[in-house]
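note to self — DONT lose this again. spent like an hour looking for the file last time. sequence + predicted structure for the chain T wanted, 360 res
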Amino acid sequence: MRTYFRLPALALASLLLCSASSIAQNPAPRFHDPADSAKIMGVVTRYLAFMPNDTIPNAMVDLLTAGEMQKRLIASHGLPVRFPAPFIYTLSAPRSVRDNDSLAIVTAAVSSGIVPLFGPLTVDWVFFLQPVDNAWRLTAIRRLAGIEDAVAQMNQLDSSNYPLKLKKIIAAETGRTLLSNDQIRQHFRDHSVDFQRLAENFRRPGHDSIWMMGRTDRVITQVNNFGISWGDAAQNIPHDVAEEFLAKLPREQQAGLRAQLRQAEETRKEGYDSLARIAKRIGITTKRLDSMVMMMHDLGISFANTRLPWKGAVQFTLGGHFDDVVGLIYSPGGGVPLVSPREYFYVEQIAEGWWMFRST
């Protein structure tokens, strides 16, 4: 059975996240006028002061906002984006994201409760400000889409009858969408050597046949423009976990599940046969592919892409779906995405040649 397929051009284009983005060097966080930082922080804190209230008065909407954000507030009759109660947050220092200081950002790390199998949740909101009529105004606010869905999945997983070991395996993948900026910084610090090694694997001289790779659990679901269908075999369930789960089921259900597990093993064999054919076609050994997907698994990377407008760069997706993702970019030449509310709404250098990003 053929279990691999060539992705259509349209689908492939959607995976090349932001390939047509503008290119900019790492934006300097400081402002030409040092007073701008205090002015920006004043605008953000005045806006946040209205959060516990029902609405923001029209006069304040006019004074503090412009553009997209002002239009949204007018349409909602002054109702601001709601942060969860109790209203606990930490603001970052304002950063300029344009050489001419025409755009700035401030991040609010907002405490958002406890998520089962994950722990305390912090959501990073990004405020965009621009100078309008000689005053800084809030023009947009962004955060990663899909957080509510991930929280719902974690709650559903927690209430399921899966063995705890299996819950933790699934939660480790789902929970990466919920990672805060602080957690990603720490994750990179803890594994910086391994991240660097994986990035260099995608950039080996004379070995440029792998330019895109996706995975589910420990299996490769995409190599370049080839996709592999694994069905129920994508998730590797340890034998002891499967037996523990089976023991909890009524006897009449056990036979059906065992048959399903046997079918998954057959599908897994077909998947590996497909992977071997793809490897031969693109001139890469299966040993190297296996090594790379294991590195991606261990680092929590679900997708890697080198077809980017920044020379020598590799983009790693940690969490999210489609364009709404969070991850890391390795760009030794220093080229990074241009920060804007429309695409990459957050980019931060976390090490030499490495940036964290959030996109929409």
